[in-house]
Design brief:
Number of strands: 25
Mean pLDDT: 95
Low-confidence stretches: none
Catalytic activity: adenylyl-molybdopterin + molybdate = Mo-molybdopterin + AMP + H(+)
Strand order of the largest sheet: 15-12-16-20-19-17
Bound molecules: ligand LQZAQKY5, molybdate ion
Function: Catalyzes the insertion of molybdate into adenylated molybdopterin with the concomitant release of AMP.
CATH superfamily of the largest domain: MoaB/Mog-like domain
Keywords: Magnesium, Metal-binding, Molybdenum, Molybdenum cofactor biosynthesis, Transferase
Largest sheet: 6 strands, mixed
Helix content: 10-25%
CATH architecture of the largest domain: 3-Layer(aba) Sandwich
Protein name: Molybdopterin molybdenumtransferase
Oligomer: single chain
CATH topology of the largest domain: Molybdenum Cofactor Biosythetic Enzyme, Chain A
CATH class of the largest domain: Alpha Beta
Distance between the termini: 39 Å
Number of helices: 7
EC number: 2.10.1.1
Length: 408
């Protein structure tokens, strides 16, 4: 048996980064940038109107009022995407739309609500804005060559919007990890099937698959197999050839029908460790193929499987994409934490913020078969082995779930 820390270390040194690929923007969401992206041009590219109205020389309208409007000759209309034709000179102006380039000579835009309106050859201005109001200046947002996005950033709507604004149609990203998920057990049935006798529904396939997608992975296949050596072996061979990383759940303990460890090593997966001093998830297995493919053998209990995935597989999937994994934070217990006497313990719970301090408590259901202990949880709380339960007021480490956030 090895410690949680050693398990992390063994896994971390085994990670191999995935190759870089050029991906069309509209299919790159959630992938990780493989290069810094610099601005190819300034933004805005040219001075332009921030509001619909009239591009004017401020000197002409500075004293305009309802009673004494300034009257200007309208020389042209400039729509967004059009080029101005004539310069604005003293006594003249151009009707201009938001985003349209400012004509030469104009320094200010008067919004149309403060004028007699669009359409005439003359316009009355009833109210003057500040000098240079309603103009967006070339380069005020981004200078040419400026680093816009850094390698290692995950592409969310924000990054995708920025890339598109600079005309990128493809983007260099680390390939998504292809993950194979095998769930094992004679008792398993898929949701939608009829349950008979002592059968149960396969929840691990779904919860682990969902975690993998949250980590930016691509599921290469899901295999739900009975406790049958030949069938499991076939699934393992298929899944290994289709995946960069393989996760199995179930059959990894020491029961009569727990074949996974033997089958994996029999297929040439070199065992790095099997069994970690943790609760839940003691019979956790990790090994590598001679091609470096990583194999995680998770225990079948639904909470144990998820704890192992969150603690070990999520950071691995991030590291394979050269992306950092969000850090853990400390919070103060408001209720006791049932520390284990011998094993490092993980329990789902809630963390929240109050007056600048972080507090947490464990979910009411804490056993490793209780999948509903996750409902309403937003973090995984952890604590080293201790002969006494930890009391309210003690600090513990929390890992906010990747799909959750801190409560206010
Ligand atoms: N004598 C011992 N018995 C057990 C030990 C031990 O050390 N000595 N370890 C216990 C611990 S801890 C765990 S965790 C489990 C892990 O066992 P396995 O990985 O072999 O898992 P299974 O036996 O296949 O299943 C355990 C449990 O989980 C249910 N299960 C399995 N797969 C799914 C799934 N896809 N969806 C929902 N539920 C699933 C299964 O029906 C069992 O109830 O072993 C303890 N026993
Ligand atoms: O360690 Mo097992 O994973 O407690 O349930």
């Amino acid at each position: 048996m090895i410690t949680v820390k050693e398990a992390h270390e063994r896994i971390a040194v085994s990670v191999k980064k995935l190759p870089v690929e050029e991906k069309p923007l509209n299919s790159a969401q959630g992938q990780v940038l493989a290069e810094d992206i610099c601005a190819g041009f300034q933004l805005p590219r040219f001075d332009n109107a921030a509001m619909d109205g009239f591009a004017v020389q401020w000197e002409d309208i500075r004293d305009a009022s309802q009673e004494h409007p300034a009257v200007l000759k309208v020389t042209e209309e400039i729509a967004a995407g059009a080029q101005p034709g004539l310069p604005v000179v003293a006594g003249s102006c151009a009707q201009i739309m938001t985003g349209a380039p400012m004509p030469k000579g104009a320094d200010t835009v008067v919004i149309f609500e403060h004028t007699s309106g669009f359409g005439g050859s003359e316009v009355k201005v009833f109210k003057a804005p500040e000098f240079c109001a309603n103009v967006r200046y070339a380069g005020e947002e981004v200078r040419p060559g400026e680093v816009l996005l850094k390698r290692g950033e995950r592409l969310t709507p924000a990054e995708l919007g920025v890339l598109a604004a600079f005309g990128r149609s493809v983007v260099p990203v680390y390939r998504r990890p292809r993950i194979g998920i095998i769930t094992v057990g004679d008792e398993l049935r898929s949701p939608g099937e009829r349950l008979e006798g002592a059968a149960i529904y396969n929840s691990n396939g779904y919860s682990l698959g969902s975690c993998a997608i949250a980590a930016g992975a691509q599921i290469s296949g899901q295999w739900q197999v009975p406790d049958d050596v030949a069938v499991i072996r076939e699934a393992l061979v298929e899944a290994l050839s289709a995946s960069d990383l393989l996760v199995t759940a179930g059959g990894i303990s020491t029961g009569e029908y727990d074949y996974m460890q033997e089958l994996l090593t029999g297929l040439g997966i070199e065992q790095e460790f099997w069994k970690v001093v943790q609760k839940p998830g003691k019979p956790f297995f990790f090994g590598k193929g001679d091609d470096g493919k990583m194999v995680f053998g998770l225990p079948g209990n639904p909470v144990s499987a998820l704890v192992c995935f969150l603690e070990y597989c999520m950071p691995t999937l991030s590291a394979m994409q050269n992306s950092g994994y969000h850090g853990k934070i400390e919070a103060e217990l408001v209720e006791p934490f049932p520390a284990d006497k011998k094993r490092y313990r993980f329990l789902f719970g809630r963390i929240w913020q109050k007056k600048g301090r972080l507090f947490c408590k464990v979910s009411p259901k804490i056993e490793s078969h209780m999948i509903t202990s996750l409902v309403g949880a937003n973090c995984l709380i952890e604590a080293p082995a201790s002969l006494q339960p930890l009391s309210a007021g003690n600090a513990v480490t929390c890992n906010v779930l990747p799909w959750s956030s801190l409560d206010e």
